[in-house]
Amino acid sequence: MNNPYFIEGPALISFSGGRTSGYMLRQILDAYDGTLPDDIVVSFQNTGKEAPQTLDFIQECSDRWAVPIVWLEYEENTIKGNWFKIVNHNSASRNGEPFKKIIEKYDACPSGRNRFCTGIMKVQTAQKFARHELLFSDYLSVIGLRADEPRRVANITNNDPNYKESVCPVHTAGDTIREINAFWLRQDFRLNLPLAAKSTPLSNCDLCFLKGTKTIIQMIKDDPSRADWWIKTEERYLGEGGFAKEKPSYRRMKEIALSQGDLFDIPDDATIPCMCTD
Ligand code: SF4
Fold this sequence. Notes:
globular, binds iron/sulfur cluster, Rossmann fold, single chain, alpha/beta
């Protein structure tokens, strides 16, 4: 089998700041003897709600592996509409600014049924950067999904027109959570966030509405201030169901987190995998 990590340019590698995409980037670098050709570019799309550890990890991968990573954020352009701006580890938003901008623009909260947060802040922002800054017209979108995530891969490759030209080399290589865990155990740095069985609950937007209710409440228990941005943002749209009609509101989840009871009675709804990869 050809090495799936030897991808052909032009290509844009989406680096989410998670362990799988870090693993994928290292394998692609190794396939190219450590240096990517000019027509293979790595980008990270920041929502402003990522954990500080995620931002530090992205910078550390870039520094240690000597690979440039372009940091992008959604920005509204008065002439071009939805657009992008290039930031860096220092200037990246840390208080949900890009997220707030899209909520204000579309006058709605994203939800499980309408994940326009991913669609605009992650997918479209990367596409606009690739087409208008890199001048790529026909390029591969390289996404870090594992071999033990076949449904997510199928969703990307079959259902989403944004991803027609996508490849998931970790999946193609047959690499699973086992290979990813073993790889990071061998490294002398890592993503400094707690691990669950097959995921990193604190990765991506901190209290993302696709995370399980118990996970969100536990994260609020650990740091009650995490809930405040979500409460403030959601309350304007509560009449329309807020972020997740099927879950308690963020205000209620904070109340539950601050009450002294355990989480025994909280429904254990599963975290729904989103396009924001690990
Ligand atoms: S992590 Fe959740 S809230 Fe953040 S962009 Fe992805 S789907 Fe939206």
